[in-house]
Amino acid sequence: MDREKLTPVEWEIMEAVWQLGDAPSVREVLEHAFANGEKAYTTIQTMMNILVKKGYLDVSKKGLVNFYKPVISRPDVVKAELTQMVSKVFRGSIPAMASCLINMNDLSRDEIGLIKKYLNEKEAQVKGEEQ
């Protein structure tokens, strides 16, 4: 199912929902994501209801309180967003995206080693699938 992309504020709300787990309330999300009062309760409630309509959250009511649980996992949202970006920005080329990311930042030796480790693991996985 294709979903509308998340706005920056929606990402913050979804991150809070994923981190909190167990179907948090609006108040719990507000206190977790915007502890310094950056957003109003009604704003978060409205945004969470928009996320229900977009298909990211499911809502259930207990008494007077709405509780929200994610319909889609964080890794699935990340994968969908990155797939769309690779397609649009890099014409579907993951190596082009990887080259861009590697060359746009100063990487430490540790980061380079970690990237090599991931590539080696992926190469071993692909070799195992080919056999």
Descriptive report:
The chain has 131 residues and is mostly helical. The chain is built from six helices and two strands; from the N terminus they run H-H-H-E-E-H-H-H. It has two domains: 8-70, Winged helix-like DNA-binding domain superfamily/Winged helix DNA-binding domain (Arc Repressor Mutant, subunit A, Orthogonal Bundle), CATH 1.10.10; 90-130. A two-stranded antiparallel ribbon has the order 1-2. A hairpin with a 2-residue loop joins strand 1 and strand 2 (65-70). The model has no long low-confidence stretch (mean pLDDT 93).
The number of helical runs is: 6
> What are the secondary-structure elements, in order, as H or E?
HHHEEHHH
> What is the CATH T-level topology of the largest domain?
Arc Repressor Mutant, subunit A
Strand count, sense and closure of the main sheet? Answer: 2 strands, antiparallel
Rg of Cα set: 19 Å
Going by CATH, the architecture of the largest domain would be Orthogonal Bundle
Number of strands: 2
Q: Which stretches are low in confidence, meaning pLDDT under 50 for 5 or more residues running?
A: none
Share of residues in helices: 55-70%
Tell me the distance between the termini. 33 Å
